[in-house]
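FIELD: query
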Amino acid sequence: MIQDIAPKKLHNEYIQKRPCSNDYIAVFHKNQILIKEMKGSMELPEIADLPYIFHQYREEVCQYLFCIDEKNYFLYSIDEDLPFMDMDIKFQFYKIRNIRYQAKQELCFAVYTAWHLYQWYSLNRFCGRCGGRTKPDAKERMLYCENCGSQIYPRISPAVIVAVTNGNKILLTKYAGREYKQYALIAGFSEIGETAEETVSREVMEETGLRVKNIRYYKSQPWGIDGNLLFGYFAQLDGSDSISLDRNELSVAEWAEREELEGMDDSFSLTREMMRVFFESAGADADKM
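FIELD: result
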């Protein structure tokens, strides 16, 4: 999946650092990120590649994000028309959601994680309590308001992915009104006061009218593009297999035979890995899948 970049490792603990010329810089513009193309490969620009940032605004707007092994990643955090939009042809802006189809896994993971933090910084420039300007803390990943003392930490939204099985069949869905048009599994956010398992039952019922039993945790995945932490579950159909579709959430919900899932794993998403696991589980005890 996207986070599986071993033997390399993400170090996400916050450290106050000054950017250096060979550090990576994540430059976002609306829903796009600046990519450097070198000899057919894609990578983030280094700060030295963008002298406008390095020489003019290094300390003011280059926010430390994380490192992968020994390579540091910084964020360029000004939202405006960038002065290097017409730079050398080796630089190009790519839509965030399209990176997964065009770049290597490590770059995708770095971009999605950087995007998660970029969104948090962008949406919390002012205090929600008093309206005062927020500032980054020097010791931890936190924004604080000098006026009222409010502390703001990165938001991570828990959500579930559910593979509903019925013997040799699995429930496949397609989202309504979204850019992503491929088959997916039931998904939804946890609500206040409920467990992840209760989220599973509620989301399946709300979106398809189906009941489930034998809810079994599988695996989790960070999904920075939406600021989520996804929890994957398998669950068996309980009762009628008749689907009552919530068309506000889904455009399609249908039962698919196990054999139809061959080749669906994209080595990227929890959803697709769970489809592969079900495909490969023919003859296995469903309760142990």
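FIELD: remark
Helices lie at 51-56, 58-61, 99-102, 105-123, 196-208, 270-279.
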